[in-house]
Amino acid sequence: MGKVLDRLTERLAHGPLHFTLIDPDKSPGPKAAAIARGAEALGSDAVLLGGSTGISPEKMAEVARALKTSAGLPVIIFPEGEGSLTREADAVLFMSLLNSRNLDLVIRAHVKAAPAVRAMGLEPIPLGYIVVAPGMRVGAVGEVDAVPREATRLAQGYALAAEFLGMRWVYLEAGSGAPAPVPVEMVRAVREVLSIPLIVGGGIRTGLDARRLLDAGAQILVTGTVTEEEGLGNGFRAILDEVRRSRGR
Ligand code: 1GP
User: Fold this and answer.
1) Residue 221 in contact with residue 181, Cβ under 8 Å?
2) 29-42 vs 234-246: helix crossing angle, rounded to 10
3) How many angstroms separate the alpha carbon of residue 3 from the centre of ligand 1?
4) Pocket of ligand 1 (CB under 6 A)
5) pTM, rounded to two decimals
6) Can you give the CATH number for the domain in which 160 is found?
């Protein structure tokens, strides 16, 4: 196990985590640094760097450097392809988009990227990525057969398949900016069968959203839009309050 996965796995033993998604296109260096500093102070556990299509390695490197010098959080690349890779980050979600119809996003891009990940010394974190309706932009760009919101058994199947394939984390994604998060019934059903950590993201904007997902068994919450739109405002603070409450502190 690598350093970042080790550290986060150890933290997960004490309760749920929160990851702050930063899009280098929407948040250039100084803005990204300010978000990361604030997120760290509020108890977020890592920065996921990525999110847009067509990001250059130079831009990723610039923002990753700004993040590393301003905050102590691990910087994990949330890739859209090989162009997202930079050695300035600590780790990369080595993720297969399990319900894509495009084989590139399931495995072929990974075949090209793996040697670069190794050469850069980036820690790969094997992850099964599952897009749930509405899926938003990632659903469209990712050419997914989105898991319908009521299809809990299908979601269980995808998540278990990820676990049985040896992936370390499963990520249920409603899509950035989704009008509502992944349904709590689906989170609960997946949690019931899964033995590896469950990440949930997309459309989490309030403390109540966070509370419901945490009660259903989500172990890592990812938020992006709430900080891009409101900075370190009430929505973000309330979400972090709920995560900290679940950790018992
Ligand atoms: C997107 O799940 C993340 O990949 C975050 O979504 O921007 O809606 O918080 P939001």
Assistant:
1) no
2) 40
3) 25
4) 21, 173, 176-178, 201-204, 222-226
5) 0.97
6) 3.20.20.390
